[in-house]
Amino acid sequence: MKPTHATAATIARLGRASVAFAAFAATFLAGCSMLEAVGLGPNHPDPEAVKAAPDERREPDHVTVRHVLISFDKAGIQSVTRTRGEAERLAAKVEALARSGRDFADLVRTYSDDRHGDGMYRLANWGCAPDTDEAEREKMVRGFGRVAFSLEPGQIAVLPYDANDSPFGWHIIRREK
Q1: Which of 9, 110, 111, 121 has its CA 20 to 30 A from that of 3?
Q2: Three-state SS string across 41-105, please?
Q3: What is the pLDDT of residues 46-95, one digit of tens each?
């Protein structure tokens, strides 16, 4: 099916309602110039991350992360009404709670604007075949994959809002495996 301008408009309107839908949109529009129009431009690997020999890689082949997405009204996530400033302050609060040892699954249930799989994502790195329940790194927004594959198990990081790297808002990410 060939994407149309109507498809791009639909994705722009609805696509930000779910990070999972964004992954679908990226799959559907892979290689299409409209991908950039909805903030999901090409996601190219770091050449160091895709070295042939697994023992030369800086990053793991597969990771499991859980995240809390804190969005704001202009990021396009349906039913989010907080301002960008309110979202930034809430993200800092959630980060502090996570670093203090609060149960991350509870933080997802309480604060996240993306409740896909209880905030859990299993990801396959560049050039690695994904398992059936994994997403390919290239299907995620750029910053999410970069942060997810840079963490050690148990580590927490914040991916701040950025129109290109994190267009949906702030992600507080904890690597599970």
Answers
A1: 121
A2: CCCCCCHHHHCCCHHHCCCCCEEEEEEEEECCHHHCCCCCCCCHHHHHHHHHHHHHHHHCCCCHH
A3: 555 555 555 565 888 999 999 999 999 999 888 899 999 999 999 999 99
